Structures are given as structure tokens and as C-alpha cells.
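Lecture notes, part 5. Sequence design as translation. It can be helpful to think of inverse folding as translation between two languages: the language of shapes and the language of residues. The source text, in C-alpha cells, appears below.
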């Protein structure tokens, strides 16, 4: 079979970097669509190890710009197109709601239009989200659960979901949405809660930070490992018939559970007291290590998410390989190493954002 060609938007992000690796391993020619104003400028560089691979290419494009996406499609003539690019941080979506709607929502439509006009045989994957379920109307959530988004981000993903389905049904495009629940890794952005916690635990145990400020510790999420999840994106595009799939572990834990696990791994056994914005946690020596700050609470919260991936298990052969504890330990160990190395070389270790 001739070498297959794929475009990945969001290639510089957590999922984009893992998916690019997976596609390269499968022998694809991979084109990462990257915008001129990439966040990589802030020091996040997840694909430097791929630069120089003869099958990996960076191509300029922005989800805000229809013409740039059309140029990517015309130049690359891809067999598969994975739309992972987004303004993906939920709190930022209240600060920049129209920008989020433009990139996370309309961005998907721009990709679909470019494919419809220039390359209708190209298969399309849309990065959907459990945030589409938001204030859940049933538990667990599956492909038939009605959406009730709770943020501009969630609303934008619901639009992207339905426009993908509409292009599939109107133009017979091979277009699928993966409704993925939270997935994390050592490459997770430091503004998201798991990475904020694992990095803080590493910094506190190394003595360079006293305590961590956090938002709602009662929220519950279904957390999986990003390295496992990207394989399902590829599997969806390999199906003869395009469709939508929930990808999740089926288990849910609170932010508090996750903090306990991470701080325990870093040598701190926490005791919790208070509630709401008065919640604190002290370590075994009586030091306050975690306290809440109203700044990190959201205008509207998604209290609990837990997915049912039976359809994906049946049709895609999905079984999550990495469990919650392994995931959090992997992230803490990685951050301990980053912090240790930085201290050893006399440079400032990374610190959580937001
Ligand atoms: P990241 O935030 O790590 O990556 C987002 C990517 O989008 C970055 O590469 C960013 O590039 C790119 N991007 C942002 N704005 C634009 C733009 N205007 N044009 C082109 N690219 C842009 O997200 P994840 O890897 O975690 O998530 C991947 C996708 O999956 C996203 O769509 C996210 O919403 C969705 N999702 C993620 C889940 C998770 O738990 N991780 C769960 C469910 C869905 P830059 O370097 O330029 O900033
Ligand atoms: P989420 O992930 O909003 O689920 O979106 P995030 O890790 O930001 O929040 C998870 C939960 O933790 C609570 N929380 C905090 N969150 C952050 N970021 N910082 C804090 O200090 C904090 N304290 C408590 C939040 O309130 C929330 O309940 C992620 C993103 O990857 C989306 O792009 C994706 O679509 C969904 O997962 C599925």
C-alpha cells in the first residue's frame, strides 16, 4: 500500500504529539499544522524530538483562517485529517468566549469545508469532549446521553460535534467524533488540574514551594492516559463506516482523591479539614500544603463525569491499559525528575500556571 498521509491540527499539544508519534510508527507521512503564534513560544515543546524525522513536516495554518486550512489540504492532499487544535482550557473560555467559539467550534467547520471542497475522500476525525455532557442528565454517559454544556468551551464542542455529524450526513464525508473523557500524561499542559497537582507536589517535596492553591476539590472526573486514547482516534478513522464513540475508563475520582495520590507519591500524607472555599490539607508534620482560592473556582462547574465506552469496546476493541494510580504516579515521577534536574543545573523549575 502507498504511504498514507495525515494532517494533525494541534500537533504541538498533548494529544497531537502522541498521535503524531503513533502515525509515524504506523508509517504515515505526518503534517503537523502549526500556527505562527504557537504557545510553544512559552517554552512548551512537545514535538522537538520529531523535527528532523523525514516523515514529519510542519505546515503553517490557523484554525481561525479558512484560506490557510484550504492551502494545507491542497498542498498535502491528505488521506486522513485529525482536528485536535482548540482553545482547550475551560476557564479561559469564559475569559475569551468568542475566541473559543471561533477556534474550538467554527475551526472544525472550516476544516470540514476545506475537505468538502478540495478533498472529499479524506477521512476526518473531530476531537469531541465529555464537556459536551456538562451538567449530566444521566450517569454514566454514552453516545445517546443528551448534551448539556456548562461553559463556552462545552458549547463550542457541541457545535463542532453536530456540524461534523451534519457533514457526514449531508455530504457523505467519512467524519467521526471521539467523545473523549479527560486524559492526562506527563505532557499535559501545566494549567490543567492533574499536572498542576503533580508539579506542585514535586516542587513542595523539593522544598522550593510551600503550598498549593486550588479550586473545587469535590469535582469528579473519569481520568485516563493520553497515550492510550490517541490510538482510538486512529481506529475510528479506519472503520468502514464513520461514527461517534465515547472513550473513557468508566471510573471516576475526585480532585481530592487525585491530590491525595499525588502528594502521597511525593512523600506527603494529607489530612483534610474545612469545606468549600475553606478547605485545607496538612501533611504529617502539620504543614499546610493545600488551600483553596476562590480564583480557581469556575462560574459554572461540571460536578461529575463518568463514561460508558461499551460501544468503543465492542466496535474498536477499546480497553484502557493504564489505570488511575499508574497515571498519577507516572506524572509525579516525571515532575520530580524535571524539578530535580532543574535544581541540579541551577535553573528555575517550571511552575504551575493559572
Ligand atoms: P492542548 O491544549 O494540549 O493542545 C491544543 C492544541 O491546539 C495546541 O497544539 C495548540 O497549538 C492548538 N491550537 C490552539 N489554537 C489554535 C489555532 N488557532 N489554530 C491551530 N491550532 C491551534 O490540548 P490536548 O492535546 O489536551 O487536546 C487535544 C484536543 O482534544 C483539543 O481539541 C481538546 O479540546 C480535546 N479534548 C481534550 C481532552 C483531554 O482531556 N486532553 C478531552 C476531550 C477533548 P499552539 O501550540 O499554537 O498553542
Ligand atoms: P477540565 O480539566 O475542565 O475537565 O477540561 P481541568 O483539569 O482544567 O479541570 C478538572 C476539574 O478540576 C477542577 N479544579 C481545577 N482545575 C484547574 N485547571 N485548576 C485548579 O486549580 C482546579 N481546582 C479544581 C475543575 O474545577 C474541574 O472540575 C479538560 C480539558 O482537557 C478539556 O479540553 C477537555 O475537553 C476536558 O478535560 C474533557
Amino acid at each position: 500500500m502507498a504511504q498514507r498521509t495525515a494532517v494533525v491540527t494541534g500537533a504541538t499539544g498533548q494529544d497531537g504529539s502522541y498521535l503524531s508519534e503513533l502515525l509515524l510508527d504506523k508509517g504515515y507521512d505526518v503534517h503537523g499544522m502549526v500556527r505562527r503564534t504557537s504557545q510553544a513560544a512559552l517554552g512548551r515543546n512537545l514535538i522537538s524530538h520529531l523535527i528532523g524525522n523525514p516523515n514529519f513536516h510542519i505546515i503553517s495554518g490557523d484554525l481561525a483562517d479558512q484560506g490557510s486550512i484550504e492551502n494545507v489540504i491542497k498542498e498535502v492532499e491528505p488521506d486522513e485529517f485529525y482536528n485536535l487544535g482548540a482553545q482547550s482550557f475551560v476557564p479561559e473560555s469564559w475569559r475569551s468566549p468568542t475566541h473559543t467559539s471561533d477556534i474550538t467550534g467554527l475551526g472544525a467547520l472550516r476544516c470540514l469545508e476545506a475537505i468538502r471542497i478540495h478533498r472529499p475522500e479524506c477521512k476526518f476525525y473531530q476531537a469531541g469532549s465529555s464537556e459536551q455532557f456538562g451538567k449530566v442528565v444521566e450517569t454514566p454517559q454514552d453516545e445517546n446521553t443528551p448534551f448539556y454544556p456548562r461553559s463556552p468551551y462545552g458549547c463550542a464542542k457541541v457545535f463542532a460535534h453536530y456540524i461534523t455529524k451534519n457533514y457526514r450526513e449531508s455530504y457523505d464525508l467519512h467524519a467521526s467524533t471521539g467523545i473523549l473523557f479527560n486524559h492526562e500524561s506527563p505532557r499535559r499542559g501545566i494549567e490543567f488540574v492533574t499536572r498542576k497537582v503533580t508539579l506542585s507536589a514535586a516542587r513542595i517535596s523539593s522544598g522550593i514551594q510551600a503550598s498549593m492553591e486550588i479550586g473545587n476539590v469535590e469535582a469528579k472526573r473519569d481520568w485516563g492516559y493520553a497515550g492510550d486514547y490517541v490510538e482510538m482516534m486512529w481506529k475510528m478513522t479506519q472503520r468502514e463506516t464513520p461514527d461517534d464513540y465515547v472513550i473513557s475508563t468508566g471510573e471516576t475520582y475526585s480532585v481530592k482523591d487525585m491530590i491525595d495520590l499525588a502528594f502521597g507519591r511525593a512523600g506527603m500524607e494529607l489530612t483534610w479539614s474545612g469545606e468549600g472555599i475553606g478547605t485545607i490539607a496538612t501533611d504529617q508534620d502539620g504543614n499546610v500544603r493545600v488551600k483553596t482560592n476562590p480564583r480557581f473556582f469556575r462560574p459554572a462547574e461540571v460536578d461529575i463525569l463518568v463514561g460508558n465506552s461499551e460501544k468503543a469496546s465492542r466496535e474498536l476493541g477499546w480497553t484502557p491499559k493504564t489505570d488511575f494510580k499508574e497515571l498519577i504516579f507516572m506524572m509525579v515521577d516525571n515532575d520530580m525528575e524535571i524539578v530535580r534536574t532543574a535544581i541540579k543545573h541551577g535553573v528555575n523549575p517550571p511552575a504551575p500556571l493559572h
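The translated text above is only one of many valid answers, since several sequences can fold into similar shapes. The first strand starts at residue 5 and ends at 9.
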